[in-house]
Each structure stands twice: as C-alpha cells, then as structure tokens.
Fold each of these.
Amino acid sequence: MSEFDSSAKTISNPPDPARIMDGLRDTGYDFNTAVSDIIDNSIAADASEIYVRVEADPNMNVTVTISDNGIGMDYDGLKNAMKYGSDKRPDAKSLGKFGLGLKTASTAFCKKLSVVSRPAAGAETLKVCWDLDFISRRNDWSLLVPEVTEDDLELLDQAAKGASGTVVIWENIDRLFSRSYSTQAYARKVFNKIISGLRDHIELVYQRFLDRRFEDVQNVRIWLNDEEVRPFDPFCTDEDKTALLQDGVLDIEGTNVSLVVKAYLLPRKDEFSTKEAAARSRLGNDTQGFYVYRENRLIYFGNWMGMFKNEPHFSLLRVEVSFDHLADDYLNVDIKKSRIIFNQSIYDTLQNEFLPAPRRQAEQRYRQGTIAAVNKTGKTPHDAANKTIESKAPHAESSKTTILDESSNQVRVDNKNGSVVTRIKIRGSEDGAMRVIPVESIEYNALWNPVIADGKHAVELNMSHPYYQKVYYPLLGRPTSITGLDALFWSLAEAELGSFTQDSKEFFEDMRLGTSRNLSKLIADLPDPDISDEDPEA
C-alpha cells in the first residue's frame, strides 16, 4: 500500500448525531458500572465527598444524581466534558480514561443528561445538557444551556458547600427496569434491590478509596441516598484465619511494566470471628477468583478469566492483581473499565506457576470444612447401616479372618480360593460403628478400604474423597439412602476378602484405587455441598 498522500482531495463526512448517540446507548453498561463511571470522574476531579442519589417518584419515574466537591468546570471545561471523545486528561493515572464514559454511561440509562458545575467559590454556577429527544428532532450536535435551578444548587451544595463542585443528573431514565411490572409495589421492590446492589458494588469497587488504611490512595467519602458507604475488603484481611498464600510481582514480557499479584485464602464460614463477619464476606461460587485493580480501583472480579471453572471447593480463594495506568495497553482495558485480557505470558505464569499451590490449599481448607460438618453429625448417619449389616453379616460374609499379629496387621484369610496370610488394617470400632467407619483420609485417596474392626469385617470410608463429599454428605439425613450406599461399599470390601489369592491381591488393590480415581473424575461436575448449613440437606 502506498503512503498517505497529504495532497489528496478530502471531503467532510460527519456522523449522524442522532444515530451516533442512540447507537452509543448500547455499549454494554449495567447500572452499577454506569454509576461507577461517573464516580470515577468525581475522583479524577479530586473530590473528597461524593453524594449519589437514586430516587423514584410515586409513579416510579427514576432520577439519578451524583454530586461532588471536586475542582469543578467553567464553560470550556463543561463543553469538553460533554464532547464525545473529550480531550485527554493531563494525569495519565486518572480513572477517567477514554473521554466517553460520562456520556455513554449516562445515556445507557437516561435520555437527558445534565451537568451542573461551579469552578470556584463565588464563581458562576453553569449548566449544560444533552437531551436525546431534542437531538433526534434537530439532528445536530446541539448542547443545551438551561438555566440553573434552585434544585440544581441544592444538589451541588450538598457536596460542594458553596465551593467548587459538579453534579451529574440523569433524567428520563428509560432503561433501568428490564420490563414493566404489574404493580408499583413490585416495581418498588425491584427498585430497592437495585439500590442494595449498587451499594454492594460501590463499597467493593472503591474500597481502597474509602478505607483510611490505604494511606497512598486518594481518600473519599461516598454517600448513597444519604447513607455513608463503608468499605468492603474482599480479602477479609482483618480475620485471623485469612492467609496470604502467595505474594509476587509479574513482569509483562518485553516491557518495564509489572503486576502485583497476591493470593488470599479466606476462612470458611464457620471459621470467621462472628456470624456477621461471615455474612459480610460474601463467600460463594460467584465471588472467587481474580480481583483486578487499576490504579487502586477494582475493575474486574468474580472468576478465573477462562483459566478454570468456578467450583465451590475453590470459593475460599481470591487473588488480587494490581497495576497502574502503564499496563493499560498491554491488558486491553475496555471503555467501561470492567474487562481486561492478560497477555499469554502473564496468563501462563498465573495458571501454571502462581496458582496451583494456592488452589490446592483452598481446596484442602474447603474439604476440611466438609469433614468437620460430617463429623458434627456424629455416629448417627451410619447407625442404621451398621445395625443392618451387623444383623446380615453372618449370612453375607464369604471369608473367615484370623488375626495372627495385631501389631503388624497380619491376618490369615480363608476364602473360596484357599488360605492366604496377608496384611489388613486392624483397628477398634469407632463409637460403636462396627461395620462402616468414616475416617478423615485413606492412603492414596482411596474411597474405601477393607479393615478388621474389633475382629469383624468392616470397611473404612474416606471423608476427604470427592465422592463422599458430593454424594454421601448431602444424603446424611436420609438413613435409607445411606444404608444403601454403606451396604454397597461393605459388600465391595467383603467381595475382595472373599475372592483374592496371594497372586491376585495386588490386582484387587489396584482395582479399588482405580475405581476411586474414576469416581473422582466422573463426579467432578456435580455441585459441592453447602457446608455453611448446620445440618446436611434433608
């Protein structure tokens, strides 16, 4: 292709204003992300106080206002702020990045966007407005300059208190509710849920700005409908049981740019200092994974970015990834500042080197919680099976065992194939569990293991095995189901005793271990039990 010819003829070909504005309403903002984009602008304007109001009149017509005590703007500043593709901010660290957020975030939900601003104490308060219906009628880039009302001044001075500041006002909101509701009472219920979700979002996304412990971060106070928003720490660092598993710096290959990466292991719900702290932790399948911060503002969280599936037994692991503006171009930060893409080098390092050990520890802590929950049920879950098997065992046993040396687990087994001297674990019964004995682990993570308990043929069940946790545990309140499962594994253990020979004993052991491994794979996609419940599912 030839180089650009600067002498070539040109023609002006401006875009259609109405179609551009209407098209940019569909850039993919959700409500929380859109409000956050406006808050970003307030923080970029050095605000220390930000008031967010989301109000609905009796007819459920909603208005949103965000006011701050930032540096404010004169007319030139307001015109630039309302321009699609506004001038680049002088501070590259700014949370406002592309010069589109104010407009696209606002009109994603409203058809009338006004900005009221005062550049300094005593200066004139100014107002400009994009009205999409007006633009549609005129079909040109006509920025309205309405009169500043008393309501505008009241909103501004809630934050500015007579000094500099700005208010962003969303009116004619037509995209907040996903559908029409049959009653206003139900619409109000949905509206209240939206407010609650917005509060959760703000306290998480701006935690470092709200939390005075972050001394190197610009501190702000944010109010939502006159109630101050408190910071939410997703890593629960105030809890004694929270552990920092990994802490490192990853360089972006071929650059001088780095990412700070930290892996936190959270307590199980039963390990938190209080029930309130456990509830506030937001533990769950959708809150594990990466928490990505750009210039201390959370921009992405809640999954493993395609590296792994969200699974309950990793719900205790949250991984911080922090970077500054220098990494923007290498991580493909999007217009909403809600998505990034790791380059292949960083992706591979995180997946294959940084995360395997923390994921193992997270799974282990989760599994321990399930074991503790199982143990809390005591001997009751297997009582019915023990009684049933004990009554039937004399007629079901196909072998006879004689203990030769208890200290070395040496036993003689007489079965249909002859007599074999071998080693079988010899133990006492647990709490009267004569035939089926749940234990915390079995060597090589086998699911079951034949044992001799108080001289009787018994079977141990591995509570750490995924099959026990995903299949057994949810059924522990159902004696009939548990009896059926217990009878199956006791029968498998008894069949092994009744069939093996000196030459085939190793084959039976391999079959038991192979079956245990296959069961782990086959039930991998089954949901894990909710170990937060005090009792198993009935």
Amino acid sequence: MPTLLPRPTAQEFSDGEFDLTRDTALSAHPDLVQPAQRLQERLRAATGFVLPLDVSTTAPDSVGIRLDLDRSLAAEGFALETAPGAVRIAASTGRGAQWAVQALLQLFPAAVYRRSPAAGVRWAAPATRFTDAPKFPWRGAMLDVVRHFAPTRDVLRFIDLLAMHRLNTLHLHLSDDQGWRVEIARYPRLTEVGGWRPETQLGAAHGSAADGRPHGGFYTQDDIREIVAYAADRGITVVPEIELPGHAQAAVAAYPELGVGDSAPTTPWTLWGINPVIFNVEESTIAFLSDVLDEIIELFPSEYICIGGDECPKIQWVEDERTQERMRELGLHDEEELQSWFVSRIGQHLASRGRKLLGWDEILEGGLADGATVLSWRGRVGALTAARSGNDVVACPEDTVYLDYRESDLPSEPIPTGTVTTVEKAYSFDPVPAELDAEQATHVLGGQANLWTEHIDSMRGLDYRAFPRLAAVAEALWTTGDREYEEFAPRLAEHLARLDAAGVEYRHADGPRPWQERPGVSGRTRSVEEAAAHLARITANIG
C-alpha cells in the first residue's frame, strides 16, 4: 500500500483499486485546467497514455479522473478520492488542485515519475479518500544561484522537485559579492561585469586554493519570465532577492560610484565568507537600487521582495569621512541605525510599489523597518523578536534547515561545512518557537530550507545536498498534528523509489556514493591539500 509524503492528517482506505489505462477519461473545471494539464503531462511522460482533457463546469457522464471546484475548501487544501473506475479531486484554487495532483501521483507506482514510458507497469492506485491542507502558508526553499550559477533548465527541474513535495515558494538569491545573476536593462554592466568572476575558491577553509577558471552567467529578463511562469503553473511563487547594503561587491565592481571611497574592486569576489565591500549611503545609490528593484518588481509578481540585509560589516562606513558626515546629516547615532535607515528607505520604495520587504534577521538591528518580514536564520532569536513586535516571520534556522551543511561526520563527506544536519534533524523542524503565545505565533508564516552554493556547482551536487532532507522539511511544514521520525522513516524509504524514478541523485543513508566523494568532481574536495594537488595535476597536464 503506497504511503504519502507529506503525510495527510488522516486517510481512509477501502477495497479495490483505480486502474489507469489509455482509455481513462480526464476532465476538469475551467478554473482547474492548469493542474489537470500538469497531471496529463506527467502521466503521458511515464505511461505513454495520451489522455485528452475535457474542460467543463459539470462532470461528464464518463468515468475517469475529474478535477472539480469546491469553494468550501481551504485555499491550498483539497479532497481526493480514488475508487474502482473513478478519481475525484476537489479544490477551491488551482494551487490546492496542484497539491491534490501531486498526492494522486504518489498513489501510483514510483515509475510515474519517469521521463519516458516504463514497460510492464500496472498503473493502479489503491482506493482511498481524505481531505488535507497545509499547516503553514509559506513552505519553501532558497536557492543561491550566485555562488554557482544554475542554468534556467536546472532551475525549472528544481521547481518540479519542489512541486513534487508540495512546497510553494522558491526564494531565488540573485545577487551577492560573487556575482549578479539577473539582467537589469537600465544598468547593463551589472551582468556584463558583475556576472563574471575570474576564478573560484575551492574548499571551505581560509587560504584554500582557487580553481583558476572564470565562472559566471545570468538570467535574461525572458529567462526570468519563463521561470516565474513555469513555477506559477505548478503552484509555486518565486521570491527574488537583491542583496543590500552588504554583499555588494559584484554591483560595486560594475558601478564603482556605488561603493565607499575610491578603491572599488574591479571584479566580483573570488572568495567565500563575509566581505567588507558595502554600498555607500548617498541618495544616488538609493535611487540606483530603487531603479533596479523597479525592474525586479516588473519581472516577479511575488508579494515579497527580499533585500538581504545580512552579514553587513560596517568597517567601510566607520572609516569613511563622507559616511560619517552623512550620518550627522541624518541625525543617526551609529552605523546600526544607518543600516536601519538604508533598509527603511528601500522598504518605503517597495511599499510605494505595493510590495512587502523581506530580509534576513540582521534587519532587526538598529530598528526594524515598518511592515518588514524577517527571515530568521540565526536560531530562534530573530523569530521571537520579530513576532513579539508584530512583524511576520519566515523561519530558516541554520542549525536545522541549512541543507548545504554536512549530513554526517564521515571523512568522505564532500567539503564538510557547517554543523551536522541529519534527515532526522531536518524533520524536527518547527518554525514556531515554543516561547510565543497564540497571537504571536500567528506571525510565523512558515519556513524554508536554504541551499547556499559555495560548494554546489551542479544539479548532481544540489540533489545530494537537498535530498532526502528537503523531503523531511516539506512534511514538517505541511503536516498538522503529531509527527514522529520513527513513523516517517519507513515512508521516506518508500519515497526514495520516487526520487530514483525522477532521476534525483540523493544522498544515501550510509554516506556519499563514489562519485560524490572523489576530489575535484563537481567542485567538491575533501581537503584543501587534495584540492591543491588536483589543481596541480590539471596544470601539469595543460603544460
């Protein structure tokens, strides 16, 4: 009997099965055409069955699969019933129907996730019925495409995997010290200069060797439109992030007048870590960033625009006479207040465009901008502070849901960064701190897992870091009621067959597979010394 992941709150089984054949009818209410099309596409790819879609406001007489509108259900909720000869899906929105489709697919054999027809499979789903809805409205993953660029096709594949797990938000990290990844028509040098760095640090330790190879890339505005539309068709909102006032080297390299003083870098940063390069606080820089965000707003219909605000060292502001003069002009007492002023100015601009500011929990320092939503990553403190002050929170604590962190203490772990974050630890994720009262807890919108890509330079690497831990996070954010890892583990073991069928190169429970632990493959090395030796061998071969 197949099980579901995420798990529904309650589910009933009965005798019999629904058999999918090439003669199965498929119909949908006009408001639910997109989810029906997604089901049609997936079934055709895996089974070879071409199921014509009948669009009508009333269910046809023929048996088969039917998607109906039911306004009484929650916005992302759905009802699903399978029986001999018929499947009935009901939802009040297209997004709810998308999640019903994903649940239905899991009732079929795992081969339903294959990209080409599987031979010899009996496409049967057990008779069952349940009504379900997510626990949190924000269920997401952050993908850093700056440290290592992901081509559009890879982002679309990742979106499919998010939808498979009923995650509804893709937070796309688009600018940082190491690169600028989105075309801004008014300022072309952001991608012409900021989109490319001369080389990349290997390994995590300070002083690690570099690979000696240029790295870069960016999304055209048409690429972004394709990504946003593709995600929307699958029930997913794409939230863009443009970093400020720190993590600014790629932008400052492109437009030196944005920097502090007269010593602007000429290329994006080639190292990892926290960089002192920061935007200056002139009105011209605020205007520049407002122009950039206006183009971002045109590309991304998301209610939220993330402006970063994290890891912003203020040494350049402290040492710069003009910045100190500017602080006096503004009546600000210290650099923390200056950062708050900077973020507030950007927040006001976003509000004037009908959008909400989202930022990492450092935006709490120096005073929180009105209406800002906080990404709480440094433990629970940011979530507690923001929620108690009446601001909304998205939880993403680094010790639980930073999926670029290592999964064990094994010496074979590729670049063992961060704390050990096992599948069980990811499954324990609860976005709502226990210290909040009921009213304060309503400000916690949900949570997301974060995937920083300093040491992930391919989809194989992304698969390895994300899965199966992202599946655990998905259930933590969806399922209402008590959760026990011992109950989850066997369902996850069954779910791995689906990941296999989808071509996901997830991490096995007993550690990395051979290709994942070899030095120099996909940018991963077990030590700085191995990285240097590998680079030396490459250099010798070239010579």
